[in-house]
Amino acid sequence: MKKEVQSLIDKGELLPLMEEFYTIQGEGYYKGTAAYFIRIGGCDVGCHWCDVKESWNADLHPPTETAKIVENAKKYSDTIVVTGGEPLMWDMSILTTQLKEEGLQTHIETSGAYKLTGIWDWICLSPKKMKLPTEEVYNNADELKVIVYNKDDFRFAEEQAAKVNKDCILYLQPEWSKRDKIVPNIVDYVMANPKWKVSLQTHKYLNIP
């Protein structure tokens, strides 16, 4: 990659854009809300059950002008969700500044493993055991969404809940391929520990992106 291009990526003026699309937010607090998703390529957290592994290699996704991404986004929705991959691998400052200048709501879905950059109206923290979040992301998270793949993930969820701020909303979400087996366990756990809520990937039930 040319040095000039890499320099623009490092500054956040270009971002490795995997895809962008207008749909219904399927998970967490804003489920059911129309939103424009910006999926940024690049992730080294490495969840074996990840359903967008094609996002991991940033080199496969074209460096795209941030201004162009914003121009596309503002045509569709007031709510913009930046996801990945792991978007915080890149500097989100320019992207979010430009989105806010257009009067748009900025949401991010992140593992929290990298430095928090950008201006966010909503931070969905989905921590992973392989690479834990930074203290700054714990402190600023609006919702904590722990993916439950096996019973040990309940222990992990409680560890993570102890690190976020007191106003953070707590969600347990079944990993999609294990949902039939794990949902009953989540239901029982939430009923016994009502500080938690159940999150489902409702977009998959609705058969939308």
TrEMBL record:
Co-factor(s): S-adenosyl-L-methionine; Mg(2+); [4Fe-4S] cluster
Enzyme class, spelled out: lyase
Annotated binding of substrate, by residue: I24, Q25, G26, R39, T83, P209
Catalytic reactions of this protein: 6-carboxy-5,6,7,8-tetrahydropterin + H(+) = 7-carboxy-7-carbaguanine + NH4(+)
Presence of keyword Lipoprotein: no
Its EC number(s): 4.3.99.3
SUPFAM superfamilies given in the database record: Radical SAM enzymes
A Pfam family per the record: Radical_SAM
Positions annotated to bind [4Fe-4S] cluster: C43, C47, C50
Residues engaged in binding S-adenosyl-L-methionine: W49, C50, D51, G85, S126, P127, K128
Biological role stated in the UniProt entry: Catalyzes the complex heterocyclic radical-mediated conversion of 6-carboxy-5,6,7,8-tetrahydropterin (CPH4) to 7-carboxy-7-deazaguanine (CDG), a step common to the biosynthetic pathways of all 7-deazapurine-containing compounds.
Complexes and interactors: Homodimer.
Protein family per UniProt: Belongs to the radical SAM superfamily. 7-carboxy-7-deazaguanine synthase family.
Name of the protein in question: 7-carboxy-7-deazaguanine synthase
Gene: queE
